[in-house]
Amino acid sequence: MHRRTFLATAATLAVTPFAFANPRPVVWQINESEWYLAPTLEEAIQCSMAMCGQSREDVYSPGYGSEPVSDEELERMPYFYDDYGNPRSGLEVYRELLAEGKTVQPFTACGD
């Protein structure tokens, strides 16, 4: 009985994508003033290109995005406000987006 269950499970795993095939979205800074929610830097760049109608060279500045934005950096982001104008942390907003099942979208931008 146990052997049959194991074999069925092994066969299922062989055709089922693992969770890490589609990593959890994180926040990527793609240039001096734009951050995107996406599983990979490339997906963040592609989202920006599609939204802005610009080339890769126009939306992505090399040197940004080598690592996802850390929780500590998200906590310090000053660009979020609730409906009453009260400041919110980027980490709080990020966690809400994950809970809503968001995967690829702009996260925030700051003006000059």
Count of DSSP H/I helices? 5
Strand count, sense and barrel status of the largest sheet are:
3 strands, antiparallel
The amount of helix comes to 40-55%
Write the element-wise H/E pattern from the N-terminal end onward. HEEHHHEEHE
Structural class determined from secondary elements: alpha+beta
Spatial sequence of strands, sheet with the most strands: 1-2-5
Beta fraction: 15-25%
Estimate the global geometry from the Cα principal axes. Answer: globular
- Total separate domains: 1
- Mean pLDDT comes to 82
Computed CA radius of gyration, to the nearest angstrom: 18 Å
N/C terminus separation: 66 Å
Total beta strand runs: 5
- Uncertain stretches: 1-20
Explain this structure to me?
With 112 residues, the protein is of the alpha+beta class. It has five helices and five strands, in the order αββαααββαβ. The strands form two sheets. The protein has a three-stranded antiparallel sheet, with helices on one face. The radius of gyration is 18 Å and the shape is globular. Helix content is 41%, strand content 16%. The termini are far apart. The chain has helices spanning 2-15, 41-52, 56-59, 71-76, 90-99, and strands at residues 26-29, 34-38, 80-81, 87-88, 105-109. It has one domain (24-109).
